[in-house]
Amino acid sequence: MTMLPYLSLAIWVPIVSGLLVLAIHRDRDVAAARWLALIGSVAGFAVTIPLYTHFAPGTAEMQFVEAKEWIPRFNVNYLLGVDGISVLLVLLNSFITVLVVWAGWIVIEKKVAQYMAAFLIMSGLLNGVFTALDGVLFYVFFEGMLIPMYLIIGIWGGPNRVYAAIKFFLYTFLGSVLMLVALIYLYSISGGSFSILEWYQLPLSLKTQVLLFVAFFFAFAVKVPMWPVHTWLPDAHVEAPTGGSVVLAAITLKVGAYGFVRFILPIVPDASRYLAGFVITLSLIAVVYIGFVALVQADMKKLIAYSSISHMGFVTLGFFLFSEMGVEGGLTQMISHGFVSAAMFLCVGVLYDRMHSRLISDYGGVANTMPTFAALAMFFAMANAGLPGTSGFVGEFMVILAAIKVNFWLGFLAATIMILGAAYTLWMYKRVWFGGVANDRVGALKDVSRREFWLLGTLVVAVLALGLYPKPFTDLMHASVTELLAHVAKSKL
């Protein structure tokens, strides 16, 4: 029996749905746009479920491979495939897209169709990034996803949205130009092939690998984002609408981390080992220093944005420990951060929709007027702080164990985020939710609606599922991680 082209469906179902939503962009018919967007996002998620149910976890080979000629003259192909690393990211992206459409159901009142369409189209482009096995195809999707996010921030964002959107675009575009140079060079020395998997076998000198490492590193480090190229993220988060912040934190940051395991580690393994100390140092700075920066933030969104930078530092740290536990811990942290960061930004969105303020000083005693919401927010705060039993604990714990096996003090420094994460998250929670009712506006707040409850409740289930039973996730990625590390171990260093 011929298998359906699930990867193409994962890419094109949301994109086509987005275009259909745009086709009925009449402002008077917003209900039709909302329902069509929801149906499109659910369909987009539904077509990715067979990627999990039909996935063979015992092999590192690419699965669900689709290959068609695209630009034969330059040997550019429409080549798709997933392994145990990328399949989880496709599922995460499609799942989060449903929640984002659902979250903006009532909140977005202007240009509703365009808003929904932007997220659907970006969802398809992101799935393209995670499934592309051709260098040009990857680059097209990688650059293409910038456009919807640029529009989301620039149109539906806050007062400084244009500045934040331009800063976001310039930072990420500058890094990707260097990546394009690296892709063209690899094409030229591989006999005219843009196949990413073929590039893994190229015999490259250490000097060449280091130059390629630098080119790829700038492109992906900006996306993660790593210190010191992180300054675009807080501005983008503060100005972006809630849905934009959710996708930015939960998905687009993962594109940078994915680039490390799909391009940097397998294509330039010698340079990866040679420069591992450099990446680990930057990761630790992100984990520790940015954690302290988060402590002094007055804006809830900015605090969570810095928290994301700090938590993503665990991901890059785990990758460059070159151990199964470290890499699997980093990948698990990527999935967990997708759930937890989405939930944290949605919680801020719930408050902002009612008070139109993100400043911590404008709140106090929210638990008195919104008890159900306070319980949900407390759960996500604990997950963000790495409480055992939640997904926030699993990945970080694995990376810390892997770091301790390399060097005790390295693991000790990494473990400080468990303390800092609890400090800035719970201090924010204390000032916003605990204490007496701060003012009349807080006193007039109404608890979460049914839609908001089920939206956040869905993420509660996801956070608990990964936190209490991570085995289905780690089993899926194990063979691919083992193969990746075996390839890197062949390094001459």
Summarize the structure.
Helix content is 74%, strand content 3%. The protein contains 23 helices and two strands.
Task: Please characterize this protein's 3D structure.
It is globular and about 70 Å long. It is mainly alpha-helical. Helix 1 packs antiparallel against helix 5, helix 16 (324-355) crosses helix 23 and helix 19 runs parallel beside helix 22. The protein contains 23 helices and two strands.
Question: Which features characterize this protein?
Answer:
mainly alpha; about 5% strand; two-stranded antiparallel sheet; globular; about 500 residues; 23 helices
Give the secondary structure arrangement, pairings included.
Elements: H1 6-23, H2 30-46, H3 49-53, E1 63-71, E2 76-82, H4 86-103, H5 112-131, H6 135-144, H7 146-156, H8 161-189, H9 196-199, H10 206-223, H11 232-239, H12 242-267, H13 269-274, H14 276-295, H15 300-319, H16 324-355, H17 366-369, H18 371-384, H19 391-406, H20 408-433, H21 440-443, H22 450-468, H23 471-489
Antiparallel strand pairs: 1-2
* DSSP helix fraction: over 70%
User: Which structural class should the secondary elements be placed in?
Assistant: mainly alpha
Unreliably modeled segments: none
Please tell me what the overall shape is.
globular
Largest sheet: 2 strands, antiparallel
Gyration radius over CA: 22 Å
Lateral arrangement of strands in the main beta sheet: 1-2
The averaged pLDDT comes out at 87
Oligomeric category: single chain
Approximately how much beta-strand content do the residues carry? under 5%
Topology, number of strands: 2
Number of helices: 23
> How are helices and strands ordered from N to C?
HHHEEHHHHHHHHHHHHHHHHHHHH
